[in-house]
């Protein structure tokens, strides 16, 4: 019988090898082949079975044989009514959950009529300033039946409060609401960079929301611990895995410090990964993440409830991998990335549209993206067998490698005193900037290839049709917001905002006062102004 | 003769946090031998024009990926002019459709780099098109 070493010496060395570096997208060097010799550890301990600790093969016992992943396309543009129409369209096309994109002013805590909102209203997402916008956004959407994801962070507390008030209008009790709000402020400072106040008070608001939801909105996911933006900012897959889990550790530690029992909130923590081009590496990343989180929750935090140990996740194909050149190629990239997400065992998935390097997607492009998921689900057969790649020598070796390399980073962050301190010192920020710069250099040297960009490029690609936002929309929304501010009870708004300010100071949970304020027509910008004056304003240190 | 190095302000206007490109360009320009000042995120056009004058730069590179380029570029140009700094070369990059890039050109933006542009190309362009202000 031949050993791997003998095969390498006698057979492989004599065969031809292309003059290439055989590395993953994240620059991990790969061996020519993995075999039984590369397996480390006991099968049950490292891999096990789906729905069983350490959940490497999936968090649920029957995985996609029980229920397919949720097909959740991120949507939002223009006025609330425009996005509401897109929601109804997507639901009519077989989408199974909603996902809301807000515009930059809402994401940064400015109303549409603020000077800083100029030119940005309804551009990268839907414009929401007050409860009236939120009511229009979810018009005729039964909140008791759909699950809604909302991608918003430094103003998440305000938007969640608005969603709760919309539920009141629909007569749906908060206990029946189910969905996710991103609300991951640590990764904002690391990567996505939407913030109002400094890291410490921002973290306090996140913990307020975890605490409030655990008690009052028990089916809601109050934070989606996100690697997506870390990767999109240029990190490697290992950094994405490590920094995201380190963020998760920080939230768990803070919530415990607040006095919550780990099993009271941990089952509602969820995750969000990027799905990039390196097929095997991405599958390994998702599998390693589940195993690492299960170990962390059980061993480090003493969680007993199995649901606390399960890393449930959303995933999205990598926006950063899409190319403006030969945009039709993006359909293929998205399909392969989405397949990695499914083989990696994701619970929900967004597939990007091929035209998203230019603008928000057209309806036609969104349809192809959604159909891509439906083809994977209904035609390819990959959903028929649970974790079909489990036990593959290469996948298991790569899963172990991701875990090892990520653990190294987590140890360094622990030694530095945890993620909050690491962020304040700019550690993850600099690591990511370094990785992004290295990747750019490798692209320019042709070490890494992007088809249509630095290889196989064509001159004069035909442009694709893109979605155009009518500038009149902004004027209309600004007028609407101003009119609402004129007609409401200003005295009551002032009182409600003072209550929010008092809670900022006293340390009382902010969610009740914020709910009261939005009910009384206080806006995102006004409540954010309270955060600004009470907690201060964070400015970008501009680290290169 | 003591020839001074070109000074370039790399600026990130608007509310979005897409700073990967701006930081890569800033670093590459610095490695390419220019003096680079990076503003950080979330700058208003006023802050950028003010920084350009204060720092006495020869060029301003704007990175916009939020779709607000047709508002932000002309405003920076107008404010530079207002401060008597209309000889500062303004260039930029980001998610900017061809039609918009052409229109920005007529408004005084010297060059727009779109996705796929290499740092080498940008450094070369700066060498050839940016001159020390008098």
Q: How would you describe what is shown here?
A:
The complex is a heterodimer of chains A (544) and B (134). Chain A is α/β, with parallel strands linked by helices. Helix content of chain A is 50%, strand content 7%. Chain A folds into two domains: 19-68 and 182-350 and 370-422, Alpha-Beta Barrel (TIM Barrel), CATH 3.20.20; 74-181 and 445-456 and 468-544, Methylmalonyl-CoA mutase (TIM Barrel, Alpha-Beta Barrel), CATH 3.20.20.240. Chain A has helices at residues 4-12, 43-46, 63-66, 80-92, 104-108, 131-137, 156-170, 185-192, 199-216, 228-232, 237-257, 262-265, 279-300, 306-309, 329-343, 363-378, 393-415, 419-424, 427-444, 472-487, 490-506, 511-519, 524-535; strands spanning 70-71, 74-75, 98-101, 148-151, 179-181, 220-221, 223-226, 269-275, 313-317, 348-350. Chain A has a five-stranded parallel β-sheet. In chain A, helix 15 links the parallel strand 9 and strand 10 (348-350). The relative contact order of chain A is 0.14. The model of chain A has no long low-confidence stretch (mean pLDDT 96). Chain B has a five-stranded parallel β-sheet, with helices on both faces. Chain B is globular and about 40 Å long. The mean pLDDT of chain B is 94. The interface between A and B is large, with 43 and 33 residues.
What is the secondary structure topology, with strand pairs?
The complex is a heterodimer of chains A (544) and B (134).
Chain A: H1 4-12, H2 43-46, H3 63-66, E1 70-71, E2 74-75, H4 80-92, E3 98-101, H5 104-108, H6 131-137, E4 148-151, H7 156-170, E5 179-181, H8 185-192, H9 199-216, E6 220-221, E7 223-226, H10 228-232, H11 237-257, H12 262-265, E8 269-275, H13 279-300, H14 306-309, E9 313-317, H15 329-343, E10 348-350, H16 363-378, H17 393-415, H18 419-424, H19 427-444, H20 472-487, H21 490-506, H22 511-519, H23 524-535
Chain B: E1 7-11, H1 20-31, E2 35-38, H2 45-54, E3 59-64, H3 69-82, E4 89-94, H4 98-106, E5 111-113, H5 119-129
């Amino acid at each position: 019988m031949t050993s791997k070493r003998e095969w390498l010496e006698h057979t492989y060395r004599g065969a031809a090898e292309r003059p290439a570096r055989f590395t993953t997208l994240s620059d991990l060097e790969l061996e020519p082949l993995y075999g039984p010799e590369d397996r480390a550890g006991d099968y049950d301990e490292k891999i096990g079975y789906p729905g069983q600790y350490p959940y490497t093969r999936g968090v649920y016992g029957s995985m996609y044989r029980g229920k397919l992943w949720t097909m959740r396309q991120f949507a939002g543009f223009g006025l609330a009514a425009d996005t509401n129409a897109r929601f109804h369209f997507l639901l009519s096309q077989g989408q199974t959950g909603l996902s809301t994109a807000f515009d930059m002013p809402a994401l940064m805590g400015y109303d549409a009529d603020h000077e800083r909102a100029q030119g940005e209203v309804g551009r990268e997402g839907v414009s929401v300033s007050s409860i009236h916008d939120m009511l229009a956004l979810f018009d005729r959407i039964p909140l008791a039946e759909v699950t809604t994801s909302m991608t918003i962070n430094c103003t998440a507390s305000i938007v969640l409060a608005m969603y709760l008030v919309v539920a009141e209008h629909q007569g749906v009790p908060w206990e029946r609401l189910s969905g996710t709000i991103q609300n991951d402020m640590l990764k904002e400072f690391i990567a996505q960079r939407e913030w109002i106040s400094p890291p410490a008070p921002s973290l306090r608001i996140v913990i307020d929301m975890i605490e409030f939801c655990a008690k009052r909105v028990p089916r809601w996911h109050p934070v989606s611990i996100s690697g997506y933006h870390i990767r999109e900012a240029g990190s490697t897959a290992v950094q994405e895995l490590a920094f995201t889990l380190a963020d998760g550790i920080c939230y768990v530690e803070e919530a415990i410090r607040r006095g919550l029992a780990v099993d009271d909130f941990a089952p509602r923590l969820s995750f969000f990964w990027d799905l990039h081009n390196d097929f095997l590496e991405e599958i390994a990343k998702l599998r390693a993440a589940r195993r690492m989180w299960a170990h962390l929750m059980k061993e480090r935090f003493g969680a007993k409830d199995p649901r606390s140990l399960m890393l449930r996740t959303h995933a999205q194909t990598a926006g950063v991998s899409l190319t403006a050149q030969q945009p039709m190629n993006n359909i293929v990239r998205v399909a392969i990335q989405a397949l990695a997400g499914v083989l990696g065992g994701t619970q929900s998935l967004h597939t990007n549209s091929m035209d998203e390097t230019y603008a928000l997607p057209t309806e036609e492009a969104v349809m192809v993206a959604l159909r891509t998921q439906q083809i994977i689900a209904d035609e390819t057969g990959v959903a028929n067998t649970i974790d079909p790649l489990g036990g593959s020598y290469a996948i298991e070796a790569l899963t172990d490698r991701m875990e090892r390399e990520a653990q190294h980073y987590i140890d360094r962050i622990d030694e530095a005193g945890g993620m909050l301190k690491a962020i304040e010192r700019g550690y993850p920020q600099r690591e990511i900037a370094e990785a992004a710069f290295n990747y750019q250099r490798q692209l320019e040297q042709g070490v890494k290839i992007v088809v249509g960009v630095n290889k196989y490029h064509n001159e004069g690609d035909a442009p694709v049709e893109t979605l155009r936002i009518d500038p009149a929309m902004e004027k209309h929304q600004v007028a609407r917001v101003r009119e609402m501010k004129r007609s409401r009870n200003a005295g009551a708004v002032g009182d409600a905002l003072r209550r929010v300010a008092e809670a900022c100071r006293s340390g009382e949970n902010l969610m009740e006062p914020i709910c009261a304020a939005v009910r009384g027509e206080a806006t995102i910008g006004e409540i954010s102004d309270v955060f600004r004056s009470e907690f201060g304003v964070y400015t970008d240190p501009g680290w290169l | 003769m003591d020839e001074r190095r070109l000074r370039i302000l790399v600026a990130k206007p608007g509310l979005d946090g897409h700073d990967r490109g701006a930081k890569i360009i800033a670093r590459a320009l610095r490695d390419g031998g220019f003096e680079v000042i990076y503003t950080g995120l979330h700058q208003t056009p006023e802050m950028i024009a003010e920084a350009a004058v204060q720092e006495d730069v020869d060029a301003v590179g704007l990175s916009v990926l939020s779709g607000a380029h047709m508002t932000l570029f002309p405003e920076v140009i107008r404010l530079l002019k207002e401060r008597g700094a209309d000889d500062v070369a303004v260039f930029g990059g980001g998610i900017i459709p061809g039609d918009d890039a052409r229109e920005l050109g007529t408004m005084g933006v010297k060059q727009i780099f779109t996705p796929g542009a290499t740092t080498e190309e940008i450094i070369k362009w700066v060498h050839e098109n940016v001159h020390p202000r008098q």
